[in-house]
Amino acid sequence: xxxxxxxxxxxxxxxHWSMAALIIAMLFIGVGMVSTVAPKYLTLLNIHKSLGxxxxxLALVRIATRRHYGVPPLPADLPFSxxxxxxxxxxxxxxxxxAMPLIGWGMLSAASHPVILFDALTLPAILPVNPNLYSLxxxxxxxxxxxxxxxxxxxxxxxxxxxxxxxxxxxxTMTPSLFPHSRHSAPxxxxxxxxxxxGGRPSHE
Length: 205
What we know:
Order of helices and strands: HHHEEHEE
CATH class: Mainly Alpha
Radius of gyration: 20 Å
Low-confidence stretches: 182-205
CATH topology: Fumarate Reductase Cytochrome B subunit
Shape: elongated
Largest sheet: 2 strands, antiparallel
CATH architecture: Up-down Bundle
Distance between the termini: 24 Å
Strand order of the largest sheet: 1-2
């Protein structure tokens, strides 16, 4: 019987950190885009649209890798409320990563605006031209953008909680392999065999 994994697979880590950078960049570009009327608006809009489609594709790849590799289990002693928040937030993140680009694509289609990737590839419209639909999708896109910001902040806060308060190894499950893992982590040791009173080191040390 295989021991439970305590690390995400390398492709999952690569997707996680590359998408984190892309999503944060896209959100800030979106904020800058809607707050300016300067000529750079069109440049920001084109980058925003291209990044959105890239994120949509990567999100689908990430879902496939999650189904293939699975995920490390959460600590057995994690309170139900925190476990529920952790597990449900993962699915909400996936939903936002897929829904936001699709809503943006649909919004532009409803406004008869083409989605052109990196000035090279024009994507087909996915919805008919409809001003009312465009307005609805525009408001939805803006609202979900704020929700995405809030979720990212809560995600960072939760990781710091696991790393600095509980010291239960959850933070290290997604640590890039390029960096040495904290000496508090024990990649081959299930969570329930770690002694958090000694900083997360295996209990038999």
